[in-house]
Amino acid sequence: MTKWKNGIAKITLPTPFPVGDVNVFLVKGERLTLVDAGTNNDESWNAFVKQLNDLHLTPNDIEQVIITHHHPDHVGLLAYFPESVDVFGHQLNQPWLTATESFIEDNEVFFERTIEEFGVPHEFLTLKHEFRRTTEYFCNRVLTGHLVEGDTAPGLSGWKVLETPGHASSHIGLLRESDGAFIGGDLLLPHISPNPILEPPLSREFSRPRPQLELNASLEKLTHYNIQTVFPGHGDEITEVEPLIEKRLNRQHERAMLVKKWLQNEEMTVFEVCQRLFPHVYERELILTLSETAAQIDYLLSLQEITMINKEFPYRYRYKVKFPSVGGA
To answer: The pTM is what?
Structure first.
């Protein structure tokens, strides 16, 4: 049964996605606040209403919603709320929430270009339509206001906004500094690493974002705060915060070093590395596995461990030979 604990109540909702159930949180404050909303379907809504009933509440009691990021399992249920309910989040959520035809087309152009860059065979070109197919799980909503680093969350005195991009460009978390409670979206999860999902840049003129580097920086950022409990978007609460952050960063580094070892022996495209990293799942989860693979390439490039060896698509990469410095007498 859903219960309050220190002014926070976790509600767990089903999703149609491989990640499974998603957590959303009710928070008591000057305004009763819902942090994140589940998927846009009746199954999720019915589960939501039932768990509200456990708290002797109805959807009409919710006065505002704050979203940690724009993914459909975190925003879709907003479609069931009336326009009178205020919705707050990072400004980068907005194009995803309204998902205009021009934005969808920009998304498709980005992935078509990315497929060429990564050396993905043309048989996978339909991948570019994946976002269009998932829009049924989104919502059409305009943010009431934008949240940025250091803001006090509206209606929630004592809760501070932290910008934590990486899993999504729009990602934020909410920190209650009095007791170290952190509602973290998908930044830090108990059993899996969040995928640094590739997203189109804000303009077709800009280069591809590097979400793994942002994700690493966001995880390291958490270690500078006295966070006692993370309330994640999926799974149970996390109390051993810093050890888990260290584990996630080390695991990502180890995977990158494996890729570096391969590139010491041969030059490869992102797609070729992806096939080797995820031989059994890359075809059915190509966007996620390509995102994860590009993350390791970006990380190795940032360390100057590898180099890109051609300037035309598809890009190919290899180990960067390091010559010892010559000292003078």
So the answer is: 0.95
